[in-house]
Amino acid sequence: MKQQKIIGTILLLLLGRAALAQQEITGTVFDKSQLFTMPGVSVLSNSGSGTMTDSSGRYRIRLPLDDSIYFSYLGRHTGKIAVKRIARGYPLNMSLAITVDSLPIVVVKPKPYRYDSLENRDEYRRVFDYAPDYLAGGSSSGLGVGLNLDMIFNARKNRQMLSLQRRLIEEEHDKYIDYRFNRTLVRRITGLQKPQLDSFMHIYRPSYEFIRSFENDYDYYKYIKDCALAFREAWRRNLPVDHPHPLEN
Known about the structure:
Blueprint: H1 2-20, E1 22-30, E2 42-45, E3 50-52, E4 58-64, E5 68-73, E6 76-77, E7 81-82, E8 94-95, H2 113-123, H3 125-128, E9 135-136, E10 146-147, H4 149-153, H5 155-180, H6 183-190, H7 196-203, H8 208-212, H9 217-236
C-alpha cells in the first residue's frame, strides 16, 4: 500500500512537470492591414500539433517549451517562432501578408449576379426599355407633327408599364444588395453569429445607392467591419443603434 502511494506521488510529480513544460498560446490572426481578422488560418507546430482560427480569427493551442509555432493560409506560411520566446500571459497576434479583398470569392448563388441580371433584363426588355412617347412625328388622327394623342388617351397603359418598370428595377436593386450584402460575407468579415448576425443584417442592410458609392471592395469591407465594432458595443451595452449608413446622412 505504501509502495502504491509512492508511485502515485511520483506520477503526479511527473505530470506536474510535464504541465509546467508546456505553454498555452492564444491570439488573433489579422490580414495585412491589421483591420480584418482571418478565420480558417492553420496554426501549426514542429511537434505536429495544430489548430485553426475560429470565425473571429482567434486561436488557442498548448505546446511544449522546446517547440515552435507558425501560421499557414492558402499555401503561404510565416516564419517559425520558438515557444520559449513567447511571453507568458500575453497574446501572440499575427498579421499575414494577405488583404481581405484578395481572399477567395464566396459563391452565394448558383450563378453570378451579373448573369442573372442580364437574363432578367433580356426577358423583360420591352418593360425596361419602355418610355412613353408623348411627342411623336405624327398621330393616328392625322394631325401631323405634335402631340401623340394615342399615348395621351392610353394613359392607363402608360401608368401600368411605368409601374411595372419601377417594380422590376426595385427587384433588381434588391437582388444586387442581397448579392453584395450576404450572410456568408458578413459572417466572414465580422465573426458575428446568431442572433447577433440576424440583427446586424437587418439594421445595417444598405441601400442600392449607398452600396454602389464605394469605390472598391476594400472600403466596403472596412465599412462592414467598422459597423460591426459599433454594433457589438451597442449590443453589449444594450443600446439602440443609430445612423447605420453614415455616408447617407
